[in-house]
């Protein structure tokens, strides 16, 4: 059982029901869960001195595309509106595979951890060259961040009037089957879970009405969250 004490924080923001702000207080943590906050707590094991420090609850990131970490500041995409930016980057993302997904997620999650984030969602909606949702789940486990990946999807490609290249979209039945697979394999609904999986059709213009409906029904049936984009800009 891992147990330690954060001792004597100069300023401790509790975010409890009373929004208490404590000075010189301690935090007792057992198996990754805070079990007590107060002054002069007994130390059960390792002690981490927090003198001169501000201690706050971890930040929560509610929307991210971790696979895009590797494609920041790409010439041609800078200052473009959403659709133009996507059209510049789709050809790069088409060449991604499991390793690129894992590395990109690792970098993005490490940056978040260093910035005080302890829980991040991720909206991954393209799976080129054998990439799978677990590429990002493995990265989060290695970094140690609590993770809420969502199995995204696009099903309307250029040939059907959509924006993404046809080889970045998927068959809708296969999308739903893989949503079920990753939920059954990785979703942990218990309190303190390190990984919960959601369902996330990319947007109303990149999937059919039927897939959006079926994804919502699947999420309800599995007891997981539904996530998407809506009205991102005037385009």
From TrEMBL:
Pfam family, one: Amidohydro_1
Keywords: Hydrolase
Class of the enzyme per the UniProt entry, highest EC level: hydrolase
UniProt entry tagged with the keyword Hydrolase: yes
EC number: 3.5.4.3, 3.5.99.3
Domain Amidohydrolase-related: from-to ranges: 54-234
GO MF assignments: guanine deaminase activity
Keyword Hydrolase attributed: yes
Record-linked PANTHER family: AMIDOHYDROLASE-RELATED DOMAIN-CONTAINING PROTEIN, AMINOHYDROLASE SSNA-RELATED
Name used for this protein in its record: Guanine deaminase Hydroxydechloroatrazine ethylaminohydrolase
Protein species of origin: hydrothermal vent metagenome
């Amino acid at each position: 059982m891992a147990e330690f004490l954060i001792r004597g924080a100069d300023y401790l923001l509790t975010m409890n029901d009373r929004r208490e702000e404590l000075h010189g207080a301690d935090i007792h943590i057992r198996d990754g869960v805070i079990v007590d906050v107060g002054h002069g707590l007994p130390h059960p094991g390792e002690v981490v001195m927090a003198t001169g420090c501000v201690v706050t609850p971890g930040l929560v990131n509610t929307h991210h595309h971790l696979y895009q970490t590797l494609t920041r500041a790409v010439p041609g995409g800078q200052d473009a509106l959403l659709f133009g930016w996507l059209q510049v980057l789709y050809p790069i993302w088409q060449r991604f595979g499991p390793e690129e997904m894992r590395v990109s997620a690792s970098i993005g999650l490490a940056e978040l951890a260093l910035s005080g984030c302890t829980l991040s969602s991720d909206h991954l909606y393209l799976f080129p060259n054998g990439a799978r949702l677990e590429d990002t789940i493995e990265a989060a486990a290695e970094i140690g961040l609590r993770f809420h990946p969502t199995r995204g999807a696009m099903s309307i490609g250029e040939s059907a009037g959509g924006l993404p290249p046809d080889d970045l979209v998927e068959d809708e039945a296969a999308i739903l089957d893989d949503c079920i697979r990753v939920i059954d394999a990785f979703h942990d609904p218990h309190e303190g879970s390190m990984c919960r999986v959601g369902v996330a059709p990319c947007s109303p213009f990149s999937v059919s009405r039927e897939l959006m409906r079926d994804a919502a029904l699947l999420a309800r049936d599995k007891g997981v969250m539904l996530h998407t984009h809506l009205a991102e800009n005037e385009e």
